[in-house]
Write a structure and sequence with these properties.
This protein is an alpha+beta fold. The chain folds into 2 domains: 180 residues, Chloramphenicol Acetyltransferase, CATH 3.30.559; 219 residues, 2-Layer Sandwich (Chloramphenicol Acetyltransferase). Helix content is 37%, strand content 20%. The chain has 12 helices and 15 strands. The strands form 3 sheets. It has a 6-stranded mixed beta sheet with strand order 5-6-7-2-13-12, sandwiched between helices. It has a 6-stranded mixed beta sheet with strand order 8-15-14-11-9-10. α4 links the parallel β5 and β6. α8 packs across α9. The N and C termini lie far apart (58 Å).
Length: 477
């Protein structure tokens, strides 16, 4: 038995028939590195042999009667791997765009809470003989850092690595409702006495930090409450649009080095330019104001919890959608990113990050917040106007048994009020870019992808043709 944290429970409680709280993990495998070629049965056995490395894939959700504490994860006594691994063929012509159409449809799939909250579609028939493993996994299990750790358990830098032999899995008995109620009551005082003082103190320190900054003339840091209305912020429909593709990471490195910024600054500037174009196509005056972008950050993970639970927090920065000039937009993105890093550091030191507050939110209050957000019709969301994330991944090729991981794409969710998520994971010299959007807002995600690439090209064009090793263009110029 494992008690969920407040952040884990939050992900379950925020779910609605249109707001799916699962994440998307897409592994494109290259079977040509295995002398025996591709075999679904072999892949199925590989996953079965490695399930003990990701134990939460055998856990299912168990609520506490009367909602008196956070829910628990318990062993599923009827776990059936065949239910969770689904073999399908990619629609014709089997290219990457056809795969993305398939993935858009399966993202809008509500996971069954009577079973462990994950499903993998093994998509065969891709061009070049590649195979995609498209996995929905509920965010209540783990955050992005924990998911990356799980990836490292399944994959290795050397081909053919086999897991250690372990005894056959034996699920623990499912407890009665009375026992779950007793466990919930038993654990409640310790949770409240441990977490409530930290949350109250953190809120107080955060208010003191904001007042001190105001007294020093430091502009107010952006927050979800400061998001302004736009056509891309509304309540979610059931449909999703998902596209992903790879860009050479060297292109970001060249732009960042030549213009004296970080890769993340380039990413944010391209996101801002892409969203600006989207707003203009919707006949919205994008020059009015910048948008509020939210970004998840890794938090400290307790020992033994590397691949389990949510310990990430979130902070906000201005997304310079109101700036037309690409270089000026890059300057604004650089400043916004620096301010966010400094604010995040100060907030964590004060203990006022959102994860400590979530820990003590009772279920009824989270449901009330969900109702309030939906009633706002997109005027407010915990995650601002747009969610952006840039995650560094493995630099060297990794393998599942003998299958080489060719590409890795990962994205989180969209929410009522925050209908666009732009995520980039680097892997093996590639910047793997994902756009997840509500289908009623973005019908064709490839338009966003093409816009992003054009924005990157604009920044690349600003880099001097010849740059000495120590030379960069200063953003202060």
């Amino acid at each position: 038995m494992m008690r969920m944290s407040g952040a884990d429970a939050f992900m379950l409680l925020m779910e609605t028939p249109c707001a799916y709280m699962h994440t998307f993990k897409v592994a494109i495998l290259d079977p040509s590195t295995d002398p025996d070629g591709w075999s679904f049965d072999k892949f199925h056995q590989d996953i079965s042999d490695r399930l003990h490395l990701i134990p939460h894939f055998r856990w299912k959700y168990a609520p506490v009667p009367l909602g008196l504490n956070h829910p628990m994860w318990l062993d599923d006594p009827t776990f059936n791997l065949d239910y969770h691994l689904r073999r399908v063929a990619c629609p014709e012509p089997g290219d990457h765009r056809a795969l993305c159409e398939f993935m858009s449809s399966v993202y809008a799939y509500q996971l069954d809470r009577s079973r462990p909250l994950w499903i993998s579609w093994v998509v065969e028939g891709l061009q070049g003989g590649k195979v995609a493993v498209v996995t929905l996994v509920h965010h209540a299990y783990v955050d992005g850092v924990g998911a990356a750790w799980g990836l490292q358990q399944l994959f290795h830098t050397e081909p053919g690595v086999q897991p250690d032999r372990v005894p056959p899995w034996q699920p623990r008995p499912w407890p009665s409702p009375g026992k779950r109620l007793w466990w919930g009551l038993r654990d409640l005082p310790a949770m409240m006495f441990t977490c409530l003082p930290k949350a109250v103190t953190g809120v107080w320190k955060k208010r003191a930090l904001d007042k001190r900054n105001e007294a020093q003339g430091i502009p107010r840091h952006p927050s979800a409450a400061m998001m302004k209305p736009t056509p891309i912020n509304r309540n979610l429909s059931p449909g999703r649009t998902f596209v992903c593709n790879s860009i050479p990471l060297d292109r970001f490195k060249t732009a960042s080095k030549g213009l004296g910024v970080t890769i993340n600054d380039v990413f944010l500037a391209c996101c801002a330019g892409t969203v600006r174009r989207l707003l203009q196509r919707m006949d919205f005056d994008a020059d009015q104001y910048p948008l509020v972008s939210s970004t998840p950050f890794a938090g400290a993970r307790p020992e033994g919890m590397q691949g389990i639970g949510n310990f990430a927090t979130v902070d906000y920065c201005w997304l310079a959608t109101n700036v037309d000039d690409p270089l000026a937009r890059l300057r604004a993105s650089h400043t916004a990113a620096m301010q966010m890093k400094e604010h995040m550091k100060a907030s964590v030191e004060a203990g006022s990050d959102i994860s400590s507050i979530m820990q003590v939110l009772p279920p009824w209050l989270v449901k009330g917040l969900r109702w309030y957000i939906k009633r706002q019709q997109g005027r407010f969301s915990f995650f601002g106007n747009v969610l952006t994330s840039n995650v560094p991944g493995p630099k060297e090729p990794i393998y599942l048994n003998r299958y080489r991981l060719d590409s890795w794409f990962s994205t989180g969710q969209v929410f009522d009020g925050t209908c666009l998520n732009i995520t980039m994971w680097s892997y093996c010299g590639k910047a793997n870019l994902c756009f997840l959007a509500d289908k009623s807002i973005v019908a064709d995600g490839w338009v966003l992808y093409d816009d992003f690439v054009e924005e990157l090209e604009k920044l690349e064009a600003l880099v001097p043709e010849k740059i000495e090793e120590s030379e960069t263009v200063s953003l202060a110029d």
